[in-house]
Design a protein that fits this description.
This protein has 356 residues and is an all-alpha fold. It has 16 helices and no strands.
C-alpha cells in the first residue's frame, strides 16, 4: 500500500513537472543557488572537521563526560552518549545514523535505540549559527538563541523519551572501539564521506524545495502559510522563506526555531531510509521531533523576551512586552530550569542508590 501511494505521488509530481517546466527549473535553480551560497559553505567544512573527530576517536572520548547521566536521565546505557554528542555537533542525520550503528553492533537494545532516536538527531551548530543566524538573519546572536533553544529542547525530549518501554535495557559493552588509521588515510576517508554527505543533503534540498515550490505555487496560499508548509516539508528552504517574510522579526525567529526542531519531511525520510533495515519503530522519533519543535519555539520566545537587545538592531516591533511580562518570562524560564535540575538530581540519586 505504501509503495502504491508513493508511486501515485511520484507520478503526480512528474506530471506537474512536465506541465510546469518553467516552475520546476525556477525552483531548482533557487534551491541550487541556496546550496551554493549557504549550505555548502556553512556545512561542508564542518562535515570534514566532525568526520575527523569521529575517525580519530575524539568524539567517543568526549562522550565519556555524558555517560554518567545517560541512564539516569534518558534510560539509555552509556554507549548512547556517542550518538547524542555527534548529533548535537554534526547535525542531521548523523545522530540517527550513529544510533542505528550502535544498535547494529549490539551496544543498545531495540528500545534504547528507539528512545535515543527521539532526541539524538539534531541540527548542528554551524547550520544554526552560520546558515540561519548569520547568512539568513544577518545576526549571529539570533543563531545563538536558536541553538540554545534547540539543545535545551533536545534534552527535555530525551527526558520524556525515557518513559518509552522503560523496562527494556541492554548491558553496555566495554568500549565502542576506535579506528586506528594514519592521519592521511583518515583525512582521505573523511573527505570522500563529506563530499558524499553534502551532495546527499543538497540533492534532498533541491528535490524537496522544487516539489514543495511547485505544489505551493498551485495552491491559493498566503506567503506566511506557504513558508510554514515549505518548512514542514524541507526546513532549510522553508526557514529561508520565513526569514524573508514581512512579519515581525520575533515571530519569524520563533517559527524558524520550530522548523529547526521539527526538521521537516526531508530529514525524516532520510532517517526512515536509515532505520528501515534495522526494524526500528519511528513512532518515538516522530513524536520526539514534533515535541522538539514546540519546545524550541517556546524557549526561543522566552529568550527573545529575556534578551531583546539581541534583535534590537532591527528595530522590530509587534512583540515587545511590558516590564511585568518580561519578569514573568524570567520567572517562568528559571522555574523550568530549577524543576529540570531538581528532576535530574532525583533521577541520578535514585539510579546511584539502586546500583549501590
Amino acid at each position: 500500500m505504501k509503495k502504491i501511494i508513493l508511486n501515485i505521488f511520484m507520478i503526480l509530481i512528474t506530471v506537474l513537472m512536465i506541465f510546469f517546466p518553467e516552475r520546476s527549473i525556477l525552483y531548482s535553480k533557487q534551491a541550487l543557488s541556496m546550496c551554493y551560497e549557504i549550505i555548502i559553505p556553512s556545512l561542508f567544512p564542518f562535515f570534514v572537521c566532525s568526520g575527523i573527530l569521529v575517525y580519530s576517536g575524539f568524539a567517543q572520548s568526549l562522550s565519556r563526560f555524558f555517560r554518567p547521566v545517560m541512564k539516569p536521565l534518558f534510560n539509555v546505557n552509556e554507549n548512547g552518549a556517542a550518538a547524542f554528542v555527534l548529533g548535537i555537533i554534526s547535525g542531521y542525520p548523523l545522530g540517527a545514523v550513529t544510533a542505528c550503528q550502535l544498535y547494529e553492533g549490539a551496544y543498545l537494545s531495540k528500545s534504547e535505540a528507539e528512545r535515543l532516536l527521539a532526541f539524538c538527531n539534531n541540527s548542528g551548530p554551524l547550520f544554526i549559527l552560520g546558515a540561519v543566524g548569520t547568512a539568513m538573519y544577518k545576526n549571529p546572536k539570533i543563531g545563538i538563541i536558536l541553538y540554545l533553544s534547540h539543545i535545551i529542547s533536545a534534552i527535555l525530549v530525551g527526558i520524556l523519551a525515557r518513559f518509552y518501554e522503560q523496562g527494556k535495557f541492554c548491558a553496555p559493552k566495554s568500549s565502542l572501539g576506535i579506528i586506528d588509521e594514519a592521519p592521511a588515510q583518515i583525512f582521505s576517508n573523511v573527505l570522500a564521506n563529506s563530499i558524499n554527505s553534502i551532495l546527499t543533503v543538497c540533492g534532498a534540498i533541491i528535490f524537496f524545495f522544487t516539489v514543495s515550490g511547485i505544489l505551493m505555487s498551485l495552491l491559493p496560499l498566503t506567503p506566511s502559510l506557504n513558508a510554514l508548509i515549505s518548512a514542514l516539508l524541507e526546513f532549510t528552504g522553508g526557514i529561508k522563506k520565513i526569514s524573508q517574510l514581512t512579519l515581525p522579526l520575533n515571530l519569524r525567529i520563533i517559527a524558524s526555531s520550530f522548523a529547526v526542531g521539527f526538521a521537516g519531511l526531508c530529514v525524516h525520510i532520510q532517517v526512515m531510509s536509515v532505520t528501515a533495515r534495522y526494524g526500528l519503530s519511528l513512532k518515538p522519533y516522530i513524536f520526539g521531533k514534533a515535541v522538539h519543535g514546540l519546545f524550541s519555539a517556546f524557549f526561543t520566545y522566552l529568550f527573545l523576551q529575556l534578551f531583546p537587545e539581541a534583535v534590537s538592531v532591527f528595530k522590530t516591533s509587534g512583540m515587545r512586552l511590558s516590564g511585568g511580562f518580561y519578569f514573568g518570562s524570567l520567572y517562568v524560564i528559571f522555574s523550568v530550569f530549577a524543576i529540570l535540575l531538581v528532576y535530574m538530581a532525583v533521577l541520578i540519586s535514585r539510579y546511584n542508590k539502586r546500583d549501590a
